[in-house]
Amino acid sequence: MAQPAPSSEQAITPRHVAIIMDGNGRWARQRNRPRTFGHAEGVEALRRTVEAAGELGVEYLTVFGFSTENWRRPVEEVNALFDLLRLYVARDLDKLMREGVRVRVIGGREGLQRDIAGIIESAEARTRNNTKLNLTIAFNYGGQDEIVRAARRVAADVAAGKLNSADLDSGKFESYLDTQDLPAADLLVRTSGEFRLSNFMLWQSAYAELVFLDVLWPDFGKDALSQAIEIYRGRERRYGGTAPESA
């Protein structure tokens, strides 16, 4: 997950786009409908966005589906979110297979209903060899929780003599994260006009370009993703260094 050095040749398209899908509840409230209606429309936006990401040349798309803090929501809403994951996989897994999309789910598996855990394992296994687009769904995920779980695994390996603490650096630590096989995020998009990371990909977004769009997630699609990428293209990425032309 190491960051590249500054280059005069900026990547035209971000390799890894991460999205905080926010605004389902507000979208539903504007229409006097229950929050679950907004979540259902959010699934349609996810379908559009996965398709658009492939068309726009994005290699890695990571979306925030259910956070470790979402357990505080009413039970009915939590159950509805789980139902939508079931529905999305049931309806779309064959299509994702045909289109070469590899599916990963990051986050803690504890607390998940048994069938949900089975659905996740099945989706990951079926799509393991796909390479066109890498779709990662952060589910029961929190950035701080991910880092703590990684630190526990590091401590366990040190205690077991499998790892010398003197050999631990940022690259080694990344191998203990849920995203060990993913590149760092280049572009992080949040919808709904909010300006927070909300505990999403805290480590992986260290040098990501942040784009906040005033569009509610159910209205998101190819046009909004293209807009975010255009904003990204206008940014100068220096990774703590200086711009090549001014060095």
UniProtKB/TrEMBL annotation:
What residues bind Mg(2+), as annotated? D22, E209
Q: Which Pfam families match?
A: Prenyltransf
This protein's UniProt keywords: Magnesium, Metal-binding, Transferase
- One of the protein's GO biological processes: polyprenol biosynthetic process
Q: Which is one GO molecular function term here?
A: ditrans,polycis-undecaprenyl-diphosphate synthase [(2E,6E)-farnesyl-diphosphate specific] activity
Which cellular component terms (GO) are annotated to the entry?
cytosol
Annotated active site:
D22, N70 (proton acceptor)
Question: Does the UniProt entry include the keyword Magnesium?
Answer: yes
Query: Which PROSITE patterns does this entry report, sorted A to Z?
Result: UPP_SYNTHASE
Supply the name of the protein: Isoprenyl transferase
The root-end lineage is: Bacteria, Pseudomonadati, Pseudomonadota, Alphaproteobacteria, Hyphomonadales
